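Researcher: Structure prediction, please.
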Amino acid sequence: MMTHWMLRTGLAALLAVAIFPFPEAKAGEYLIVSGGPALKFNEDDKPAPHDRYWANFIDSAITRIAQIKADQPGSLIAWLVYRPAYVERGREMNQDLVREVETRAAALGVKLLWFDRTRQLVNYINRGQDRRQAPIIGFDFFGHSNKACFMFDYSSDVDGGSVSFLHQNQLTAIEKTAFAPNAAARSWGCHSGESYSEAWKKHFGFPMMGAIGKTDYSAGGLPVPSSEGGHWVQ
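Model: Predicted structure follows.
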């Protein structure tokens, strides 16, 4: 039986293909990175609380993975997910969200890799595969962000703040040769197109698509720009 989240992610996948066409098929690895949700305890009393739904960054990643698998069967895909935020939100909900994510990854047939620290993510990017044989050809980030920072947690460990992140000034820790020269990169978080995209292109030599303004995950599947005048840029 098809579940609600499968329906949501499947429909969004079909709609997004026309907006973000896939790069030409080639040998290499796709990396999908999911940050974690805020705690409801920290957010529910705010005028615009974040992450009422715990799986915003999980469902969107599944949509993207399904796109890649459908368009390029047999592609090498690694899904890296920030574990601590799902452990904490799961405790709050009295639910094993780590197991839930693992179940969804298994159903999709994708390699799931948890990370607890930014360094672990960077190490996988640099050396998770022999990058001479399997360079990264696609990179997608789903999570909280501001114009200069991917935030793997937000309002989880610290109310309104982040303790695990990849700032644009930290991109130099990632080896340029980990990526194929014509790789495709997208940040689906808020504000990334206002600074992070430029820093990414300056370091790696190829563009990253990012948003001007905020993005909205609430409809399921891939997020869309939600600020007045918001749009995607490279």
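Model: The CA atoms of residues 182 and 206 lie 7 Å apart.
Researcher: Thanks, that helps.
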